[in-house]
């Protein structure tokens, strides 16, 4: 009886302190971190682990719903690399990522610089460029599919009218052009996003830096190299890493424009992974390819984080 | 007090539920198919009729888009929510029947007075058979032949449709007229099932099959196809166009010949402003072996069903209505005992006659549980040859290696 009487107030005090810290203090922080972690683990972590697990297992329609499946070790990885299309897909993925990002970035940067000139209506027209960004990929794909059509395509008609080509270019059916057809559409799709982020970065550079440089006699090109580019470094890093993720995620354009054809000449890793899982019903290989892509993105993000770290602190 | 109120509520709702249930036990059948997604079709119409005609059975019909059907069924089967009856495209059927996902109905069919296995065409029947047992019944069938523009043929001084692939190529050259945007021929060599659908018959007529693709005859015809594409007698876009779009260019007068099937006929009667006809798919040598693609869907009962008797009754009802499917839905029954009605549209009736003859030579794709992978090997080879990445012989040899791996040879 006495013991209880003694501990009663102590427990009550502990409880009160705990509740107080939940409202304002360490407990509150832990609560916030905890909620974020639970969300992350449930929505991203578990599916990711499940995917990695699947790439080491034998999967077929009967084991699709279960977690424990026959272990395959690295066999899925070996099989994927041995696929006749593997190196072609790797090359296509590289072309698609490199040139999509390059095109989006260079043209996006040029447009951002252009609209930073503050001519009348500059911000309104810049706003209109966002139209491409709000359109769903499948719609964009369908439109580009018509533009790039071989016999009665818009682009061919224009090019012929200008006298640039003599006979039709079969953008979607010629192995020499098919991957470029998707690259062109993807550059158009991602252009506005790049331009927007870079415009924000440009606006953040203090005007007086340019004025001072101008007084010192620096010309436009020198100002660009010595002020704009260095000041934009973190923005450019962010744009490029987001561009990499966005390009590796780009899927809608492929089924809408080339379906990966002809003869896999426009198949990229993400489309291949989908084909394996949902057209050939080889879920293990589909998972394996996506794990390979994940590793690539991880390496790229590590490089990005490392390259910007010293700058943030400095 | 509170608890009592909830208890009362529960009792009332339970009572209401039992009141809503008729005196006799009702069975619910889930039926899935692609019909009814964009237009009324066989499965949705007959399911509704069957539901209305049977007091003891409730049919829950679900229309699923073509591209999602197999995936959706795989997922449902894996999680134990599979439908009772499902209608698959014939090459997809073996994926399920070979793994015990479909109900063996061999004995039920043998005892049925409505469904008789001997009435079905052999090709469609093969697609629902596995290991000597019957796992479903064909729903309808189709095949491919050559549509040709009689006006353009007359202009070019050609009197008969081509009999061999060499002849088809020769005619294509004569009929090509770049000034008027006319290609000699069009077909679908797309990277997908449609590509295999059009190319596999050639492998079959050369004496091969899906398990033996690297034949001399197939390489020879593939070279002819390449010749047509390279010389502009057929559009390069045959590599990306599906059959429906490819034949669209024929209807608008931009191609003089088109390889496609009976599903085109109704639109062609409407759209084509010229005289046209249909011929059997050419052979490799004059009078040589014939073959053609076998299309169409099958019905099957999934092995997880709790009501196999009622599900089989539904199949019997569907089969008993087969004589209506040509008139109402333009689909050809996969049965030899049904006389198709004359529509009175002269070109349509003539076309149907050719397609019915062609059906006698139609051979199924597979059946094989990993058909989709075999199919990819075949259309990949076809595309590699047509784009000049490999010679026809090498491409087919590579496909053979891939297929051997799948077949475990």
TrEMBL record, chain B:
Source taxon at top rank: Bacteria
User: InterPro entries of this UniProt entry?
Assistant: SBP (IPR006059)
The cellular component terms of Gene Ontology attached to this UniProt record, alphabetical and capped at eight, are: ATP-binding cassette (ABC) transporter complex, substrate-binding subunit-containing
Signal sequence, start to end: 1-25
Record Gene3D superfamilies: Periplasmic binding protein-like II (3.40.190.10)
Keywords on record: Periplasm, Signal, Transport
Output the GO biological process annotations, alphabetical, semicolon-separated. maltodextrin transmembrane transport; maltose transport
Q: Which Pfam families does this chain map to?
A: SBP_bac_1
The protein's GO terms of the molecular function aspect are: maltose binding
Q: Which family does it belong to?
A: Belongs to the bacterial solute-binding protein 1 family.
Q: Provide the protein name.
A: ABC transporter substrate-binding protein
